[in-house]
Amino acid sequence: MRFAVKKLSRSDLTFFEPQFRVQNAGNQKSINLNRDVFVDELFPAFPDVLTEAGGQLAVRLLIDGPGLGHNRIDVRRKLAKGTSYKNYRLNGEFVRNPEEEASRFNSLAEGDLAVLAFDGAGAPELIRLFVLSASEAADVAVRNALVSGGRTMRALSREQLAAAVALAPPDHPLQDLLLSPADAADLEAAAEGDAAATRRLLSKSPRRRITAEQLAAARRRAEETGLDGERLVAAWLGLGQPQVQTWIWVAATNAISPWDFELRTADGDLRVEVKATRGDHETPFHISMAELHAAAETSRYDLWRISGLNEDGGRLRVCIDFGPTARELIDRLKALPDGIRPDGFTVDPVKLSWSEPAALAWPDADEA
Fold this sequence. Notes:
By secondary structure, the protein is of the alpha+beta class.
């Protein structure tokens, strides 16, 4: 996600229908997106994307603010650039005051801010727009932190935005945009079905909302973490390990395999399922029903836990032969009524026995 802040001019305010009626700023009905920021810094490929789209690109627009207590507005609008103006525009139909909030945008004034969060690769697919008003007490601190000198629009780093958002009340809609590290970890766990993590997120401020896009991004991060854990193990095995005679990265060619590696060692053959986290070893992990059955039906099925995964490597702990635990769990599931079948479980690593940690490092680039 990429971020920017826009100081709203009188012509920008005409994007909102009640402001269009009072600003006397022409017929623009759009928010200008300065080319030197929107294109040069955030989306360099956007001019080509827009040309291929015929000069207009439809986007989903989510609007929050000003202040607290408003319902989120979810509409479709367009990104465009006409031949007679240099900047790009977010335009389309007016944004009107909702029927249940008849004066919502009436108090906006020139110099108020819009925080824009763009989600998409070569071009925005979703834009989240947060309106910050000097007349709203809940907006004042974060608005003052984001006001800059003469520039009407500037890009924001995640760190810059986080510093400003930290000044906002806990139930400010901007808080939804940047999750704390703990909440981000819970969201990844919730994306994998962790009910406890979901309850923790739901227990936050009642106005804290997780968008479908945030949940999808959390799923992608969880998948990337899992794949990076497998890559690290494959790199380590590829260096040659005395106890491993041969190995196959099964999941690299069969994405639905309920184990990731097959190893032949001096002690016999085994299957390995890698469970990776960028957090601590004690972070709960998900195991699917397919993996549970595979462990129960295999002579030896090990869990390899990679924790602290980062650009340097990670720490490996091994749970040797998860099969007996898997068989016990499956046996207990027989008490469930017919027609009810779990798809997986969240496992607390503390409940299992693990080897001492061993450091695994990514190979140097010239050795890869």
